[in-house]
Amino acid sequence: MNTSQQTFVIAGAGLAGAKAAETLRERGFDGRVLLIGDEPTRPYERPPLSKGHLTGEFDPASVFVHDETFYAEHSIELLTATTVTGLDLAAHTVTLSNDTTLRFDKALLATGAQPRPLTVPGANLPGVHYLRTLADADALATAAASASSVAVVGAGWIGAEVAASLRTRGLPVALIEPATVPLERVLGREVGEIYRKLHAHHGVDLHLGEGVAALHGDRRVEELCTTTGTRIGADLVVVGVGAIPRTQVAAEAGLKVDDGVVTDEYLRTSHPDVYAAGDIANAWHPVFGARMRVEHWANASNQGAVAAANMLGAEQPYTHTPYFFSDQYDFGMEYTGYCPQWDQVVFRGNPDAGEFLAFWLHDGVIAAAMNANIWDVNEHLQQLVASRAHIPVERLTDPDVSVESLLPVMR
């Protein structure tokens, strides 16, 4: 098929969009590629924003997905500080924030998510920060340089990593979370307890089982009041209470939306010429037999590439096992799998020593696995999880049974 006269529009110039544009050129697409992003800079990766960017151990150039010359060299039209404000499915057009209308043959929605706002009195006071963009990270790092005390609201991944990074800088940090342990919703109480001990060991003032009632201050935030009445002094508050997929344009266009833009296993939306990838995509996963929306780096990178291939007719199902990593203090981990519910968590190694493997089991199946300060095993863990295998608990927990040796049991 002659594609030189075709136009592919990618709405969203984050990691997913950048990898999609790269893949289109790698696979020989010679038509017009427009990569449209609302931020003023070229695509970058977000994981360093809550880690090295805040601790100061950060090379600013390393955050970008591609070199500055990449887009021009590959004839990718990168439109920064521009948003897609409208999508006309019948006409195959997008409208941009500068009132330009562009026709497309295929489109990819990769507009990501935005921070869920804190809705309590005082939430809009100066000194209250969110962390999503590079500009957010710059502003937070600048504020941290002159802060005397920090309150972090939410002990999910963003909150826990920000708390660790700012505590590493020597700042007094309070962490407020309604759950009983950090990361309880994702990891459960057993592994969440490990993170509770980790933050406590590093001197974080933990307020677990407490929400935020209000923020107080005269001209800027000075104090946080919890739902139990505890008052915490803080001239810097960081909010990490989740993210909301940016689906407004898709919904207004008539695409199917349900906690993200709904796609099939090929990342195709309810319109055959429109695809979705990254944080915005609620995609059917054929291996796990479930629909899932994953807000992690690997998912954005992998889905962007697969969506681009399918825009070119590859009909390649998205089967990657969900994966993410986190570094907090000297505790690094990788997690693989999809586990909205589980019956049992079992460990190999000693969690108190900070080096272990954990397995989440549901109906006897390994639904997820995690390696903590143990490296070069995650590829095998991904294979175990993807196999949907029943492995006896005594083999999972036996340190004398290598993870690799478990793989033939499944075949």
Automatic annotation (TrEMBL):
Keyword tags: Dioxygenase, FAD, Flavoprotein, Oxidoreductase
Pfam families: Pyr_redox_2, Reductase_C
UniProt-listed InterPro entries: FAD-oxidoreductase/Apoptosis (IPR050446), FAD/NAD-bd_sf (IPR036188), FAD/NAD-binding_dom (IPR023753), FAD/NAD-linked_Rdtase_dimer_sf (IPR016156), Reductase_C (IPR028202)
Domain of life: Bacteria
GO cellular component, one term: cytoplasm
Stretches assigned to coiled coil: none
Span of domain Reductase C-terminal: 323-406
Cofactor(s) needed by this chain: FAD
Domain FAD/NAD(P)-binding: 8-304
One MF annotation (Gene Ontology) recorded for this entry: dioxygenase activity
Protein known as: 3-phenylpropionate/trans-cinnamate dioxygenase ferredoxin reductase subunit
Organism annotation: Couchioplanes caeruleus
Biological classification of the source: Bacteria, Bacillati, Actinomycetota, Actinomycetes, Micromonosporales
